[in-house]
Amino acid sequence: MKKTLSIIYLLLVSASFVSAQEHKSTEPSKFSFGSIPYGKPMEEVLKMVEGAKVWESDYVSIETIGNYEDLSSYFAGGLYTIMGLGTYLNSNVVKKYTAAYDKWDNIDKIDLYFVKKFGSNEPHTLFLVRKFLKAPEGSYENVFNGMKGSVTEKIGVAPEVFKVKYQTDSMKAKRTYEPAFFGVWTLEYSKVFLLVASSFYRTRRPEILYLSNNGWKNYLDSIDAYEIYMKQIEENKSKKMIGDF
Description:
Mean pLDDT: 87
Number of helices: 6
Shape: globular
Number of strands: 11
Low-confidence stretches: 2-24
């Protein structure tokens, strides 16, 4: 009898272990440094967040870049800004999906940006990941320094650090701002950005951006091709409008 109970106990433990392993393996990807599948097709990447709430955004916003003073210089040539609408990428060549999973400990949500060569039948591929962390306790300066130390230890490269103004469009209109830091780790094939800003007497939700250098180049090439195409379309329309002059 005791032997039978022992066997049943072992079977239950094994089943629990398998169930735990299956749950662990099916948890949506957190897109941690070193495991980001830059250049992979969108359909393949979205399978990595199965189990999370995922939605597509028609408006390919990336407003944070425009809110941190001087940060946009790292994205020169690829940003569009309209007062009141923030900063965004070209939706004719980029798709944006957001994933949220309530069992992530420190992550609020993750934005995934995919680029496609304009005019081609090639699939959209991952080139930028934007990770929103949950708002921490502590001053923005202490939070930034703590996170900066952890990121540097993992990457193994010292960052460039900037103390800047943080301004939303409404803050710019009122000529107010909050102090902020951002750090940039420049690697051979990618860049990592850590963004931390104050908000009155607390710290805003920190963000981490992971950018593929090759993916950004592909994006710039794609918007160049799109703008050349639109230029031809507009010129041809103008020629027809002149009629029988």
